[in-house]
């Protein structure tokens, strides 16, 4: 799960723990969730509506993790 990876990254970098917020939408029998996570002063939002809050938080965490661990793009020629 990306939530764990983001938490481990924050621990390694000595950053504050990630903070999640989740919003529920839709009918009670078919709820949809969107989440955001704040990591080191930056916010990342789930890209799609999910069937569970756990899934939407993991989606937001994935975006944060990839942001902080992907290599920078090469400089323009």
From TrEMBL:
SUPFAM superfamilies in UniProt: dsRNA-binding domain-like
Keyword set includes Transport: no
Domain DRBM: 1-70
Pfam families xref list: dsrm
MF terms in GO: RNA binding
Keyword annotations: Repeat, RNA-binding
Matches recorded under Gene3D superfamilies: 3.30.160.20
Keyword Lyase: no
Protein name, entry field: DRBM domain-containing protein
Gene source species: Citrus sinensis
């Amino acid at each position: 799960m990306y939530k764990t990876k983001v938490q481990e990254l924050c621990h390694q970098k000595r950053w504050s723990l990630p903070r999640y917020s989740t919003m529920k939408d839709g009918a009670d029998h078919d709820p949809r969730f969107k989440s955001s996570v704040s990591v080191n002063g930056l916010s990342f939002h789930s890209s799609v509506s999910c069937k569970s809050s756990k899934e939407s938080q993991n989606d937001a965490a994935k975006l944060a993790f990839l942001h902080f661990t992907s290599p920078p793009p090469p400089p323009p020629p």
